[in-house]
Amino acid sequence: MKARTLLGHDVPFFWIGDARHLPSASKFALITNPAQAHGIAADVLPVLAYDFFSTATPGIAQATHAADVIAVIARAVDLVTTGAASAVCTSPINKKVLKDGAGFAFPGHTEYLASLGRVDQVVMMLACPDLRVVPATIHIPLADVPNALTAKGLEATIRITHAGLIRDFGLLAPRIAVAGLNPHAGEGGAMGDMEITLITPVLDQLRAQGMDISGPLPADTMFHAAARARYDVAICMYHDQALIPIKTIDFAGGVNLTLGLPFIRTSPDHGTAFDIAGRGIADATSLIAALRMAQDMAAARRGHHGCD
């Protein structure tokens, strides 16, 4: 509700779910189609109703709702792919509850959305006004990263990112910085050779095709203000290499988005926070940023298609 009030009418959105799950003091209006969200007052939440199995208890994970949560995500994707809405902004989910309650077969939102979009590979980007980062490997143990990094996978990550910056951010000539895996980007092989044997050949190939790519660069000198001014996105080799900088720069306002889908998807860059659910103290900053970014990406994508 706070997000709706702060956004006003400049970012029209609606919520899909069971109105019984909203706080008791919530002001909401039931709608039957997305277009009706435009006419709802700024302090009223438009709700496209989806009846869940039962009411919810704030802060309590309920496996009986798992199938309904999964269905609501699919419903949102269907509305976007049919043109009834412009983008999907997902709230955090509890993956264990979905697995326990409905046999959810995906590691998380991203993989499920890729399945719904019928694409084989997508890219997770974290973005805030001062930085965009993409981890080439995501939720795997650090010890598994060297084996998980492949030339094919790194190339696909960079290509999807490059295309996404053009289509969804309106950057006609994206500047891409790529981090090395090892300290000091391997220091010429003294601290590891994956920069020489794997990363550099991929970057050279893509540079030869016209992409503006720098690297592999030492990760410890990539994220101060002057360095960030030289690129539009940083491709990192593993999860924390990407997420520590952006969460340090803008912990509350970061946005998680998925590139490579046939539709736009953003999400707040945080988890479910069951420990503060129902207490009225949650920070809506990231959700607001995710909604605004979804709108901006939709506008960029419309502009891009208009130029095709």
From TrEMBL:
Classification via Gene3D superfamilies: Isopropylmalate Dehydrogenase (3.40.718.10)
InterPro entries noted in UniProt: PdxA_fam (IPR005255)
Gene Ontology MF terms in the entry: metal ion binding; NAD binding; oxidoreductase activity
Alphabetic keyword roster: Metal-binding, NAD, Oxidoreductase
UniProt-recorded name of the protein: 4-hydroxythreonine-4-phosphate dehydrogenase
Provenance organism: Pseudorhodobacter antarcticus
